[in-house]
Amino acid sequence: MDIILWRHAEAADGYPDAERELTGKGHTQAKRMAAWLNARLPDDALILASPARRAQQTAAALEREIVTRAELDTSAEVQHVLKVARWPQSVRTTVVVGHQPTLGQVASMLLMRTAGDLSIRKGMAWWFTARSRGGQRYAVLRAVMAPDMLRKD
Description:
Layout: E1 2-7, H1 24-38, E2 46-49, H2 53-60, E3 67-68, H3 78-85, E4 94-98, H4 102-112, E5 125-133, E6 136-145
Parallel strand pairs: 1-4, 2-3, 2-4
Antiparallel strand pairs: 1-5, 5-6
Helix pairs in contact: 3-4
């Protein structure tokens, strides 16, 4: 299984938090990252997103079906993200569009198998693959991509 942690793109400040929308720059970030992901994702990839507007708008840039899960909202916990994504049991590639600090904490758990806080910048995607060795499951970091590293159209 592959799991991609995609932090929502840049959003405007405001209240209520769940209604914050992407800025112009955020839409550009989401579009660039979506193009990069779509070139690599299998057709049957599962797209899971937080119900927060900025996460929904980021995920929408993929132009694929989005499954909205309340467990991925701004107060999500690591265990909820991994459970919703069915890590590492799922056979489908899964994209999780969510928030900091949760996605950074998930990345820490996948990389180091311990709680920690890694910083995932706005619009950035971290791609992990599940592997097995000696009966043990572990994660391999395949790619880290930021929207400002991608081609400007």
